[in-house]
Amino acid sequence: MPKIRPESRGALCNSPLQPSRVTLRNMSVTEAHAAARAETNGVAIRTDRVSRHYQMGEALIRAVNQISLEVRTGELLALQGASGSGKSTLLSLIAGLDRPTSGAIYANGRDLAALSSEELAGYRNHTVGMVFQSFQLLPRMTLEENVELPLRLAEVPRNERPARVLQALKRVGLGGRARHRPAELSGGEQQRAAIARALINQPVILLADEPTGNLDSKTGEEIMNLLAEIHRPPSGPGCTLVLVTHERPLAERYADRIVTLSDGAIANEERRQ
Amino acid sequence: MKFPDLAELAARNLREAVLRNSLTTLGIGVGVASLVALLSLGVGLQQLVNRSVARTGLFDTVSVRPRQSNPFRGGGGPRSRDASNSEPPRVLDDAARREISLLPNVIEVNPEIRFTAEAHVDPRSQLTLVAGMAPSSQSSGTLEGMTGRFFSGPGVEEAIIQGDLAKRLLDDGKAPESLLGREINLRFAQRQVLPAAPDPAQPGSAVEPDEEAMGFSIIPGERNFRIVGVIPASDSGGGPAGFNAAGIYLPLATAENLEVVQGSDLREVSRASTGEGRRYAALNVRASSPAAVAQIESAARGMGFAAFSLIDVTRNLRTFFAIFDLFLGIFGSLALAVASLGIINTLVMAILERRREIGVLKALGAADRDVRQLFFAEAGVMGLVGGVFGVLLGWGIGRAIHFGTAVYLRRQSLTPPNIWSVPWWLVLGAVVFAVLVSLASGIYPASRAARLDPVQALRYE
């Protein structure tokens, strides 16, 4: 099995690449993570009968319907299901990109429904990192500029950014491609750049929506190995990873637990380890 | 997001669609240029008129005169309801002059000496107006363009002649300046104070009772003056204008000592009023600044005199130019209004094109405020660049119009006036206005971009 050779170790989810000045309510990121872990009693994400319905003309689409779910801190949860089963919608709700029609979502001890739009943006910037099926890199920017974007939004001092960006890119094996634009890279490389971008602010929760969906099986496996290593690094704390995938073998190989959705509800739950 | 990051991202986004954004910015530039060109002409015309008015030397001067008597007083005619009007008008005498000179912001009070005289420079004569000129006129700008020099002292027998009169006194073809250094003879009506009234007890008095009431007789007077200055002819716009205009100017002290008869002398005689010392037809009160003119004018009226200043005239003039400039501004702004539609169009197109990018930014933690600010910054940058470009273009257009007008007027044998002016406030105002219009145009696209649903935006291909 081919494996990414990281150029440096330790640049994982919530293990800071270097002392950070990014603060959440006057705490450093690591302090905030530790405090959150203590506050949440080991639960990173909890959904309480959460629903997301859409009105399409006369029809009511129940994309997510009354889902109650707990994800333990440090767990790798795979969400499985057929297309339209509601897994991406649930992921968007957990990511704070969308708000539920009813029910509550607690992430890192915070009720997302109680957060203002501004606070929710801060949550997306600091607490969660997102990896998409279609990479979602901005084509006009180089890799380092793409990876730098969350740092800009977090108002990290400019002099700190280049080192952090370079280290994140090195971590995913793209240290030499910093000045390249996404179009000059393969799909696997683009996804690795997207992972570097998702990790740059050292989030405690990583959400990956079909990260291997646009890749061939070999490259997909490379990406999954990288995600697994980020989730559970050889040294230091890892992060909670929620993985949406329709590839059953990958889910079985890497996930601690597999939750299968059907018609917006949990159809099956299977603990792997 | 911090401002430098915002500006950097905005500039980057603008560079990406360089042609479209350049055309939009050019539209703003043309709008600003039309605004600047029209307003610079409006300001230039206003300054031209202001200069003409300023040449009267009355911008900081109040003319104080005795009030006119009520023509209906006595004789059983209609009477004013104002009791004060029934009293005789106050005499403008030395006491009044002292009182006026003590008013706040008054720097000098000079009598107005104006009379008609026959000017003679061999072999020609001309009837003309002669006026006394205060030493302060030297620095007031009213003698701009004068050939020769100002009076060498306050009581010297020197004259400054107006170019038009000089031309009439000279043989055809000679330059007015050729009169410099020559003598000019003035003939005028002179007052001669009568001897004190004889004691009625003494028999054989030569003075009749009527003459005693008048106090002076009128005799012909004559005096020679050396011409030391020639003011440009009126078609060149030189010399004092308006109420101050005269053919010949003498030092004020010299003019006072001539004891000439002025129109007011006869009026005062007919009034048979009393006063302290000398009486004046009018006093010219110079204020420390034009802003103090209204206050002095009001104080003089309160003292029982009639007061007049050019502020009264220019108030209407300023209103006229304010409306004129407003209309020019509105017409100039029409192009900018069209350009603002271009900004809206460009930014709305940018939202459609960058829908996915906005979704990514939001997924990475951009707040609605960040997205709104980004679009605002793009609109602001277009406005700033367009504004600066527009000012330069407008300046060029204004110069071209000015140049064209000057060429046309010269062909008509006219001296071209400066009808174009770009003051610093117009430059700054135009750029700020362009930025504000651009930001206002960005409100709708920016709020639309900020409201974009990130889930929908990320699905967009």
What is the compact description of this entry?
Chain A is an alpha/beta fold and 273 residues long.
How would you describe what is shown here?
The complex is a heterodimer of chains A (273) and B (461). Chain A has helices spanning 29-40, 87-95, 117-126, 143-153, 161-171, 187-199, 217-231, 248-254; strands spanning 23-24, 27-28, 43-56, 59-72, 76-81, 102-107, 110-111, 128-131, 205-209, 240-244, 257-262, 265-271. Chain A has 273 residues and is of the alpha/beta class. Chain A has a domain at 73-98 and 117-271: P-loop containing nucleotide triphosphate hydrolases (Rossmann fold, 3-Layer(aba) Sandwich). A 6-stranded mixed β-sheet of chain A has the order 8-9-10-5-11-12, sandwiched between helices. In chain A, helix 4 crosses helix 5 (161-171), helix 4 packs parallel to helix 6 and helix 6 (187-199) runs parallel beside helix 7 (217-231). Mean pLDDT of chain A is 83; it is low at 1-12 and 16-28. By secondary structure, chain B is an alpha+beta fold. Chain B contains 13 helices and 11 strands. Mean pLDDT of chain B is 80; it is low at 71-84 and 207-213. The two termini of chain B are 26 Å apart. Chain B has helices at residues 3-16, 18-54, 94-101, 163-169, 209-214, 252-257, 263-271, 293-302, 310-353, 355-363, 368-411, 424-451, 454-459, and strands at 61-66, 106-111, 114-121, 124-133, 147-148, 158-162, 183-193, 216-231, 248-251, 283-287, 305-309. Chain B is elongated. In chain B, the strands form 2 sheets. In chain B, strands 3-4-9-6-8-7 form a 6-stranded mixed barrel. Chain B folds into 2 domains: 3-54 and 318-459, no CATH class; 114-261, no CATH class. Chains A and B meet through helix 3 and helix 4 of A and helix 1, helix 10, helix 11 and helix 13 of B.
